[in-house]
Hints:
The chain is of the alpha+beta class. The chain is 50% helix and 17% strand. The strands form six sheets. Strands 1, 2, 3, 4, 5 and 6 form a six-stranded mixed sheet that branches.
Amino acid sequence: MDxxxxxxxxxxxxxxxxxxxxxxxxxxxxxxxxxxxLITKAFNFARQAHKGVRRHSGEPYIMHPLAVARIVCKxxxxxxxxxxxxxxxxxxxxxxxxxxxxxNLFGDKIAGIVSGLTKIAGGVFGAHASQQAENFKKLLLTMxxxxxxxxxxxxxxxxxxxxxxxxxVNKQYKIAGETLYIYAPIAYRxxxxxxxxxxxxxxxxxxxxxxxxxxxxxIEKTQRERDKLYELFTNPICEQLDAMGLKYHIIGRVKSxxxxxxxxxxxxxxxxxxxxxxxxxxxxxxxxxxxENNECFNIYIALTKLYNAHPDRxxxxxxxxxxxxYKALHATFMSHYGEWIEVQIRSERMNEVAExxxxxxxxxxxxxxxxxxxxxxxxxxxxxxxxxxxxxxxLDFLDTIKxxxxxxxxxxxxxxxxxxxxxxxxxxLDLAYSIHTFLGNHCIxxxxxxxxxxxxxxxxxxxxxxxxxxxxxxxxxxxxxFVTTAKARAKIQAALRRQQRLLQNEGxxxxxxxxxxxxxxxxxxxxxxxxxxxKVKDRDALLYAxxxxxxxxxxxxxxxxxxxxxxxxxxxxxxxxxxxxxxxVDVECYEEIDRKVPLNxxxxxxxxxxxxxxxxxxxPGDDVLGFYDEDKHIVIHKRNCPVxxxxxxxxxxxxxxxxxxTHKQLYFVVPIQIKGIDDMGVLHEITAILSHQxxxxxxxxxxxxxxxxxxxxxxxxxxxxDDVKNICENLRKVKNIKTIARIG
Length: 744
């Protein structure tokens, strides 16, 4: 070993020891029992187990478990058992040691957590859909067995996201996609708001680096204005709270880049139109003998003497906490300078629970606060119910679970006056299923505030709801289009599967009778002919259609089976395996493709080699990725496309990096939505700018006016994103246009 290598080894050893000492210092500063020897033992064991192994960044592998343990201790607030499990979390997966080895050295608790982490190692998702569902089920099952497994897994994902720059671009898309799809929502549900925000921002940064940098720059550019507004707004508040004799501190909270971008996408507005970028947080210590809940409202009342409150923006999470344990009073006030500013009022304890989630809740549970136990138990019980009735389609399963990860709660009342917590935008049918599966399956309607409403009626906070039922179950496939809760969707799908099995049995009886009458055998070849003839997916779909009556077996079927007339066996199975038609153009198939090299999307190969996704209609300049589908075609999606998000989470190994290399030769149709004041000649002015000034071809216009306001969608031919920006900038100059945005 030469001197440079020796120096490198010495420096690395020093860095490892320093990182471990820093972990111990953080742990010793916490309120947990001091089990330094156990943590040191776990560190030394992991260090030896991972010796000689390096991460993609080039650093020794042990730095990763150390970083995860640090997050577990400092940012989540867990104790020695979790710290040890974090240090050991990759040992069983990546080395020759077993769970039994861990149990013998560190006991049952730590071994149990490491075992749980090993079962879901490598991310929630594997290479195949069935594996993804199984891994995700394991993740959810461990929530009810030992929630620390999931908390450590989130810490593991957070550190992986913080070091994502060392991965290949296509792997970045995969990891960022599944992080946004599952890990951030789970962090939210467990109350880890700070970690949830960081996971979202890091995912955004790697999927849309240019957009992320642009928003960061705008936030920085407007910082001075916000600082001035913050000072002018909070000075009177400080005077008022001082007069009340409160011990407090006030901080300004700036909306995260991901939240800003997400709102821009959903509302189709510019950065400048986001009015709630600044929020103010008041964190106070309750006065001795005073109830902290009442103190929140006392502060709110004091603020109403200074500023006008928005009548519809008061959120009482104090008396009815969110299901993740979050407690605070939110109110929005109009500053003296015409700006709406949200104020969040929390006690110190509420703030710690808001930042550290369920881990902080455990800390206060010993002090007699069990307010969140029932909510968390109910959620975990719902997860268990869904797991007990597994869904055959992995993606449906993931989507069903995800429905209830992000959810703002409302409160509704039963006829007897009991309160039920439900997700916002839920329906009467969702409530029926939340009470009991039998009630949901037999539901025919509801009475809301004593008025008859249909099953799809959306409930509002404060509604009193009575569920109406029939004697016989009435589950219908259309119900899936409007229910919003995971439990309702899972139970409806389970009932539909039972119905489908009954109809398939009837279909099989009808098919056997038909074949018997014609003197034919029920063998695979005959079934395949009928599948092709009736254009159904598979044997089960054929039997279901026959049982339901949508397929009636007759002469056409007999001709197909006997090879009569034009329906021969050969004609039924003549199709190409090598080509796919896309707008009349043959799209190439790929036998092998180098996933490490980004795809170049050029004017020449765009239509010949790639398929432009119909779900999101990407154009040159959009952040895009490629997806290598089952037919060996490459489909181009926007990176923020909902379909692409699912693909990143479910088939991450097929995600490909892609970049545009076009030169304004091809045209793409883009819908642009325009809203404004309806006035004489406004449409003429818009079309004149598009056609004459910008020389843009308009393919289609849909426009309507109501009460002096017009809203229109223009489908315009463009070369790329720059054309769209140019069009929007020019149209914004029209006096009566108020908002303009590309949609789709």
